[in-house]
Amino acid sequence: MSDQTFDFWRDHSLKYLEMAHDTRRIERPEHADGHGSRTGECGDTIEMFLEVSRGKISRVSFDARGCLNTRACANMAASLAEGRRAPDAWSITSEQVAGELETLPADHIHCAELAVGALYLALSDYEKKTAPSPSGGQEEPNLNKKGTE
């Protein structure tokens, strides 16, 4: 049994520390091409916002309410998604997020799952918004409209 205590600043990887403390992506934009929100059993919540240009994810912003591990995971998931074609972002996994952070505590893997879940919901929302309508993009006429009285 080790008597050594965990030193947050010394024992975490540089990548983890960067992702946990980087606030550049923390934003709730007025317009997003895709939005997803997920709350974990622990009570932490991540909302992801996608901006997509010409089929590529140009920016991912998020709002994370929870622990520092949750913010690190949200930032890493966002970082992994940016620059990818939207369909390719579905390949991002919670294991990949945790691995990239290098020192995410084992008892906080659920934070990586939460971040990837919010990303998947944002991707799904984007796909719904950009899917062609069944009528070929044309609004179907409403045949039940009443005439003017």
TrEMBL record:
Biological process (GO) annotations held by this record are: iron-sulfur cluster assembly
Q: Which Pfam families match?
A: NifU_N
CDD domains under this entry? Answer: IscU_like
Q: Which InterPro entries match?
A: NIF_FeS_clus_asmbl_NifU_N (IPR002871)
In the UniProt record, the signal sequence range is: none
Which GO molecular-function terms appear in the entry?
iron ion binding; iron-sulfur cluster binding
Write down the SUPFAM superfamilies for this protein, in alphabetical order: SufE/NifU (SSF82649)
Q: Where is this region: Disordered?
A: 128-149
Q: Where is the NIF system FeS cluster assembly NifU N-terminal domain?
A: 40-130
Query: Taxonomically, which superkingdom?
Result: Bacteria
The name this protein goes by in its record = Iron-sulfur cluster assembly scaffold protein
Q: Which organism is it from?
A: uncultured Desulfobacteraceae bacterium
